[in-house]
Amino acid sequence: MTIEVTNLPEPEVTCTNCQACCCRLEVMIITDTGVPEEHIVTDAWGGEVMARLDDGWCSALDRETLMCTIYENRPWICREFEMGSYECINERTENM
Q1: Long-range contact list for 74-81, CB < 8 A, 24+ apart?
Q2: Residues 6 or more apart whose Cβ sits within 8 Å of residue 75
Q3: Residue 56: its pLDDT value, please?
Q4: pLDDT in tens, the chain (96 residues)
Q5: What are residue 68's phi and psi, to 5 degrees?
């Protein structure tokens, strides 16, 4: 008799296994945190958002390390998006 286990817990998300899935989301600039101008674009509705490159990733993401190059000046929304939170796990699941 074999037992199929389908509800295995997600592995803990850490800096070493983060896939930076949140760096593919559209991020509005709603407060001044010092995001460098070269990473800000205006969307179709006139709002400021983080620029994304042709591959869909945030322009501030280092593609080799998957780390933010403007971490100390990242937007408020990025500061609130917690690694390992429900939203983080949901994005990882959708992008696998």
Answers
A1: 74/33, 74/35, 75/27, 75/28, 75/29, 75/30, 75/31, 75/33, 75/35, 75/50, 76/30, 76/31, 76/33, 77/27, 77/28, 77/30, 78/22, 78/27, 79/33, 81/22
A2: 27, 28, 29, 30, 31, 33, 35, 50
A3: 92
A4: 565 555 655 567 776 777 788 888 899 999 999 999 999 999 999 999 999 999 999 999 999 988 999 999 999 999 988 888 878 888 877 766
A5: -75, 130
What are the DSSP calls for 47-65, one per residue?
-EEE-B-TTSSBTTEETTT
End-to-end CA distance of the chain: 31
- Write down the pTM of the prediction: 0.76
